[in-house]
Amino acid sequence: MNIIKTKLQDVYIIEPQVFKDSRGWFLESWSKKKFEEAGLHYDFVQDNHSFSNTKGVLRGLHCQKGNAAQAKLVRCIRGAVLDVVVDMRRSSPTYKQWIAVELSQDNFRQLLIPRGFLHGYLTLTDNVEFVYKVDNYYNKEADRSIRWDDPELGIEWGITDPILSEKDRNAPYLKDSDIDFI
């Protein structure tokens, strides 16, 4: 397993070792032991799985605030996405900075996102399946969204008219939100 630092503090690209032969391939998508050997300590409690049928679906930017915040280990198991994370931890040297990483069924990459980050992704193909582990259960009262095109963040999605849910279409700008990670 290859663990790659990104420009965002505490965010890592995870490249699992893929064993291929004439039958197909095998990989370990999660190993608590290997993560802990790398100094990454997470206790994931739930797996989530989403499907988007059309290229251009944008899901995000989402987080849960306070004690309900979630760390995530995300990956695309069918199709491809542009996965975006934004550091919202006020004390972080990378506060309000973002990265975008392509995750796909072909590159097998995963992204490890600690608590205190906004997260979203844009489908780059039709028929995308996206799975992720979280270290805290969903809490509706703590659920927050920020506009995908907030000029304060300046994220370069490569699209001007994505397909959005009502929740994401009506999300507030960061300046109007109560997101307050310390």
Strand content: 35-45%
Count the domains. 1
Distance between the first and last residues' Cα: 31 Å
Radius of gyration, CA atoms, in whole angstroms: 16 Å
H/E topology pattern: EEEEHEEEEEEEEEH
| The top level CATH class name | Mainly Beta
Q: Which shape, going by the Cα principal axes?
A: globular
Sheet with the most strands: spatial strand order: 1-2-10-7-12-5
- State the CATH superfamily name: Jelly Rolls
Structural class: mainly beta
At CATH level 3, the topology is Jelly Rolls
Low-confidence stretches: none
Helix content: under 10%
Helix count, DSSP H or I runs of 4 or more residues: 2
Mean pLDDT: 96
Structure description:
The radius of gyration is 16 Å and the shape is globular. 32% of the residues are buried. The protein has two helices and 13 strands. Helix content is 5%, strand content 40%. The chain is mainly beta and 182 residues long. The protein has a single domain (43-176), classed as Jelly Rolls (Sandwich). It has helices spanning 32-37, 166-169; strands at residues 2-5, 12-15, 18-21, 24-27, 46-52, 58-64, 72-78, 80-87, 98-104, 110-113, 117-123, 128-134, 143-145. The protein starts with a strand and ends in a 13-residue tail after the last helix.
